[in-house]
Amino acid sequence: MELILLPLSWACLELLELGFVLRDEVPVIRRFTGGGTVIVDHGTIFVTLICNKDDVPGVQPYPRSIMSWSGLLYGQVLRGIGDFQLRENDYVFGDRKFGGNAQSITKNRWIHHTSFLWDYEVKNMAYLKLPARAPEYRSARDHSEFICRVKEYLPRSLFVEKTTKALETHFSLQPVNSETIGAVHEGGFVHTTSLLTKQELKDALASSLESIAHSS
């Protein structure tokens, strides 16, 4: 099942085709990190780095510093595969995006989160509008011409293996199971990510239609 991730700003609801979202009952989650609006499903790979400010030497808790370092990290993962680049905060092969990033930064800690398009359903892109503000390299291309699938370049298992090895050059990794993660959540963790209700989506749609009516 697909779902949609929104950054904290309510204005990002304007990037959704809310009529289609409501019709198909697609869950919409408002996350606490920045970044753009993302539709995800079983074909999405998530990688999230949660670091204290001194965990990575030379990386300062600022967006540009973190992005620069992450570009080098995934350059190591994808060396010799496609024409990998970090372009305007996106991970791309050539001029086609396959990874979008979101960040949250505090005084002593930062989070860098990436949604990798291992695969995606073309029909799901109908839930997203073309953003008014987009990277210059997008050149007003629609989703089908702007994005690509990681699976077209390497197997999923190899991508995960190479990402793990790249991370091991910076961190000491220890696998944990889902039960352990669940136990941490039960320990008083304060959730700031929320699932939007159907009424909230309906109200946003009504507001959008009212705005269009007033401007016409």
From TrEMBL:
Record has Signal as a keyword: yes
Pfam families the record matches: LplA-B_cat (PF21948)
Classification via InterPro entries: aa-tRNA-synth_II/BPL/LPL, BPL_LPL_catalytic, Lipoate-ligase_2_inactive
Family annotation (Gene3D superfamilies): Bira Bifunctional Protein, Domain 2 (3.30.930.10)
Domain spans labelled BPL/LPL catalytic: 1-162
SUPFAM superfamilies, sorted: Class II aaRS and biotin synthetases
Region forming the signal peptide: 1-23
UniProt keyword list: Signal
The keyword DNA-binding is assigned to this record: no
The protein's name: BPL/LPL catalytic domain-containing protein
Organism: Populus trichocarpa (Western balsam poplar)
Lineage, uppermost ranks: Eukaryota, Viridiplantae, Streptophyta, Embryophyta, Tracheophyta
